[in-house]
Design goal:
0% strand; rod-shaped
Length: 44
């Protein structure tokens, strides 16, 4: 079995995936807040 060396793994794919997740979560939160504001104004 090969010996593991700390910090030697290529994590570019994981970093891209995480950045995409953060971006999607941010846009989802922004859209949700915008919909809630619209609903509050439309009901007023």
């Amino acid at each position: 079995m090969a010996e593991h060396k700390q910090g030697s793994m290529d994590i570019r794919t994981q970093e891209k995936t995480f950045a995409g997740f953060v971006r999607l979560s941010t846009w989802g939160a922004i859209i949700s807040v915008a919909v809630l504001i619209f609903m509050a104004l439309a009901n007023a």
